[in-house]
Amino acid sequence: MSAEATSPGAPIRRRGRPRIDLRRLGRVALLGPVSRDRLPDAIGHVAEAHRAHHPDADLSILHRAYVLAESSHRGQMRKSGEPYITHPLAVTLILAQLGAETTTLTASLLHDTVEDTDVTLDQVREQFGKEVCYLVDGVTKLEKVDYGAAAEPETFRKMLVATGDDVRVMSIKLADRLHNMRTLGVMRPEKQARIAKVTRDVLIPLAERLGVQALKTELEDLVFAILHPEEYERTRALIAAATARTDGSGTTPQDPLAVIAENVTTVLREAGIPAEVLIRPRHFVSVHRVGVKRGELRGTDFGRLLVLVGEDADCYAVLGELHTCFTPVISEFKDFIAAPKFNLYQSLHTAVVGEDGAVAEVLIRTHRMHKVAEAGVIALGNPYAADGGAGPQTAEPADGERADPTRPGWLSRLLAWQQSAPDPDTFWTTLRADLAQDREVTVFRTDGGTLGLPAGASCVDAAYAQYGVEAHTCIGARVNGRLATLGTVLSDGDTVQLLLAEDAASGPSPDWLDHARTPAARIAITGWLDTHPEDARSPHGGRPAQAGPEQPPQGHSRPGPRPPEPLAGPAATPDGAANAVVDRPDATVRLAGCCTPAPPDAVTGFVVRGGAVTVHRLECAAVTRMRSVGRMPVGVSWGDDIECRVTLVAESFGRPRLLADLTEAIATADVAIISATVEPPSEQRVRHTYTLQLPDPAALPALMRAMRDVPGVYDVSRARRPVTVA
Q1: In whole angstroms, what is the distance from residue 280 CA to residue 320 CA?
Q2: Residue 112: is its pLDDT beyond 60?
Q3: Rounded distance, CA 123 to CA 80, Å?
């Protein structure tokens, strides 16, 4: 587990009990039966650690579980030469130190008995109850498939299903893997590497998502040592050198982190804030990452300050004092109390500068937050006990399944999509990609519900998260009340409304895969496209394409950016500038395509290459750009001819007769169409660009309103093109 925090002035070492000699415990376990009125010496350490978190726990069930496990495994040896009973003992001790409740510890002691001995599940159920039996069965199912390239995906699929039914199953599995990684040195190097890679790709991300940082950090260090031995040795040497700068009695006054810790303690004491200030050493991987990030390690980079307080409000009081009495590094501030991480983690993060310029990172949290930060879901106790405590639950799970009140949203989503993964390879690849997502956002539905999505998720992901396969008919979305494309990336706190088509036979476009971030969305879209190959070649997906002259033919399967196709008249050009009068005789006048000025817009002009004058609206971004590079403006006014030319862009959902309805609305306003283009549809959206000749510029607002009233059109605006300086 990760190095424990230590107080300033104390040696940097693990706090608590002395290191346990598992070989000695194994010998003690083989000495024979013990008195029924006391626990065997070999499990005394587990009992001590358990009572530290649960003072009133009934230890008799642990006694009985140990006796059964020891007698069942008697004579079995590990590859390291130790009695096999040392393994379940070590796994149980790891969980006890993290605060696991009695039921989990009982199942941990017995987790290998059904798989490796003559003990049956019926015996476990009869002697220890249904809850312990349920956990032992869940862990046993994970051990039935040997590790190997082909078997690994199915092993972890079973693991996830078991975890979804009860997160304590995964807790036991993580502790089991940690002890196996500690003793991996007896295996061949190639097998060490294979197990380390699986641990890195799946188990460490799962430990992170379950919030069990104590297991995650030690697993990271063990994997680091196996897969990157040279970097590990360099990091170990750096840490050893930093530790050598302290004397035998603790850190010296020259230790910059200890100096800042003493100053922080003084500041908080004078402010009357009860707080415990500790130095928390970084583990190997953390030191390595800081070194890669900064290039050269500072004296304060080998640890962080941890400030523990009693109440949430005290966390912010500490933050205020630190930012008042020290120079804060504002870019390092993060508030995970107001917005907890998806894995239950809560803390305030900041960094302050000491008197000599040394920068110290500071974590501020309550004692309860610290317990959850270290142990994650393990700290939550038995989720099925009526009081949430350590006692077993006697209720029979309905149909062998249950809804875990501690199940994180990401786990529910993962359990849902894994059922749709068509083959082990797809499942394995998708699982690792999904676990690589380390942040979540919460978006609100218009019906009052919420959706938990990985950071970077789009409206496509929200659609499949809310509607499942019904999302195939999604045609659009509103984000915070405004129409948005399905590719719009959602932010934490957004409100999203998904718009579904009435045609249940319609399907997604291949473009959706470019915006899908969640496995559920990608698997569903890919599945539909594979079963509808003809529709998949169409840019509309399974949606009806506009027919006849209203929609240009699209012959490519993955529509990408390409020039708009003209439907009528010449290409749109910035001509028609006869009504603009410039203060430069005989100069050619052009209306800028970036802002399409028209009477009575306030305008100005600039001379461009060739001596022509380009006319811009005053609020056009190009005006600022031109002035910033020293271009002098040319005066422009509108002539007596009231006719003007303007370019409008209509954004709409694709549908039949859309072009006909738009041109009819324009013609009804007595406006001439000089040219019109329609861009290839993207995500069922179509962009129409019209260059129009208006008899009177005053009619422009009414024309734009009439075009917006056409069904399917959601926006009409003056054309704006990227600004360039000629």
Answers
A1: 21
A2: yes
A3: 30
pLDDT digits (tens, 9 = 90+) for 318-348: 999 999 999 998 888 988 888 777 677 889 9
Q: If pLDDT is split at 50, 70 and 90, which confidence band does 361 have?
A: very high
Tokens of 423: 């083959």
Long-range Cβ contact pairs of 414-417 (< 8 A, separation 24 or more): 414/160, 414/164, 414/519, 415/160, 415/161, 415/164, 416/520, 417/518, 417/519, 417/520, 417/523
pLDDT for position 31: 37
Helices and strands (DSSP H and E) totals, the chain = 26, 22
Note whether 415 and 160 are within 8 A (CB).
yes
pLDDT for the residue 665: 87
450-454 vs 495-500, strand pairing mode: unpaired
d(CA 351, CA 333): 7
SS3 of 633-651: the string is EECEEECCCCCEEEEEEEE
Backbone region of residue 697 per phi and psi (left: phi > 0; alpha: psi in -120 to 50; beta: other values) = alpha
Measure the N-to-C terminal CA separation of the chain; round to a whole number of Å.
63
Torsion of CA 499, 502, 505, 507, to 10 degrees: -20
Token digits of residue 494: 């957004």
Confidence at residue 410, expressed as pLDDT on a 0 to 100 scale? 56
CA 546, CA 312: separation in Å to the nearest integer?
A: 59
Q: What H or E segment, with its residue span, contains residue 304?
A: strand 303-309
Which are the catalytic amino acids?
115-116
Q: How far is CA 689 from the centre of its chain?
A: 39
Q: What is the pLDDT of residue 3?
A: 35
Q: How far is CA 555 from the centre of its chain?
A: 38
Mean pLDDT, residues 492-507 taken together = 79
Task: DSSP letter for 396, please.
Answer: P
Q: Looking at the predicted structure, is the pLDDT value of residue 574 above 60? A: no
Contact 243, 281 (CB under 8 A): no
* Structure confidence by residue, pLDDT tens digits, 285-316: 999 888 888 777 888 888 999 999 999 999 99
Q: How many residues does the chain have?
A: 726
Instruction: Say how far apart CA 212 and CA 374 lie, in whole Å.
Output: 6
Q: What is the model's pLDDT at position 522?
A: 81
The residue with tokens 């039914």 is 165
Residue 387 has pLDDT above 50, yes or no: no
User: What are the C-alpha distances in Å from 72 to residues 104, 390, 394?
Assistant: 19, 26, 26
CA distance 163 to 56: 28
Higher model confidence: residue 388 or residue 658? 658
Structure tokens at 469: 């396969």
Q: How far apart are CA 246 and CA 254, in angstroms?
A: 9
Distance from C-alpha of 24 to C-alpha of 599, rounded to nearest angstrom = 94
Token pair listed for 284: 């190997």
At 505-524, the pLDDT tens digits run 678 888 888 888 887 788 88
**Confidence label for 397 from pLDDT (cuts 50, 70 and 90):** very low
How far is residue 47's CA from residue 59's CA, in Å, rounded to a whole number?
Answer: 7
pTM over 0.70: no
- Asked if 720 and 689 touch (Cβ cutoff 8 Å), the reply is no
Q: Assign residue 448 a region: left if phi > 0, alpha if psi is -120 to 50, beta otherwise? A: left
Is the Cα dihedral 137, 141, 142, 144 positive or negative? positive
CA distance 334 to 350: 7
Share of the chain above pLDDT 70, in %: 72
In Å, what is the CA distance from 510 to each residue of 382, 485, 545, 636, 683? Answer: 45, 15, 15, 48, 9
Q: Phi/psi class of residue 364: alpha, beta or left (left: φ > 0; alpha: ψ in -120 to 50)?
A: beta
